[in-house]
Amino acid sequence: MWDKILFFKSLSDYSFAQYADSVLHILCTGGNMSFSFQDVRYNVVPGDYVILTNPALASDFSESADFDAVIMSLSEAFITSMAIQSNYGIIGHMSLLQNPVMKLSPHDYRICLEDMWKLHERLNETQHLFREEMLGHLLLVHILDLYDIHAKSQAERNISERNGDLLRRFVELLYHKEYTQNRNLAHYASRLCITPHYLTEVCKKVSGKPATYWIDRFTTHEIARLLLQKEIPLKEIADRMNFSSLSYFSRYVQKQMGVSPSEYRNQAIGKTQLAT
After folding, report:
1. pLDDT per residue over 131-155, tens digit each?
2. DSSP 181
3. Is 131:84 a contact under the CB 8 Å cutoff?
4. pTM (2 decimals)?
5. N or C: which terminal CB in the chain sees fewer CB atoms within 10 Å?
6. Which domain-ending residue is among 111, 128, 157?
7. Nearest Cα to Cα of residue 78 among 139, 37, 163
8. Same domain for 153 and 199?
9. Is residue 190 located within the same domain as residue 103?
10. Sign of the alpha-carbon dihedral angle for 198, 92, 256, 54
11. What is the DSSP string of 10-50?
12. What CATH number does the domain containing 129 carry?
């Protein structure tokens, strides 16, 4: 099955464990729903667009009886392969990790709905000789529409080309999982040939958060993904993430995620089993 773009009729059909490396898009068209994301509870109503760049960090989904939505899962690798030439993706990604819900105007809601239904419609054309390329271009249109919508709501956060490039290279280090070996701010500043203070100031200007916040965010996202795989022992996860000991790993998870690794694993797997 071609699983780079998938649509689901309801959230109960979506496996958070199976699609841990995907990005989940939810455009609410009726009713309402709520969920928790990084200790914040969000209420979603018609016209709201939810983008979960790491669905494993979302939990406690609750839907009204009349809830309706367009639910789309995108392979992160497929999105990355599109190589969009814009620094805004970095800004948008950082923003969505803080607040995954966008409030759409009636015009923007119509645009997004049309984009998603066009993707859904053309996805069925399995005999199209250039199906993957065709779908990739349709998805690119939708992503650029989302960039436009989000950028207009964040207009005050314009950054210079130099700082945009710096931030892109910083996040690229994180995307390449540099944090699995080193989570020290000075290490990243050295790799970028700047001072730790300058890196922190650029991150604060764009996202309102220091560089250390993003190092920890990416680290906890990876830990959450690994914890969902119950066959991997906690000690192995600690080793993969280059923690000096299991106890140090446990303290880090407790501080960043509010629960111990075993508690998080049990809670996340329990919710996944209830959803299925």
Report:
1. 999 999 999 999 999 988 887 876 5
2. T
3. no
4. 0.71
5. N
6. 157
7. 139
8. no
9. no
10. negative
11. SGGG--TTTTTTEEEEEEEEES-EEEEETTEEEEE-TTEEE
12. 2.60.120
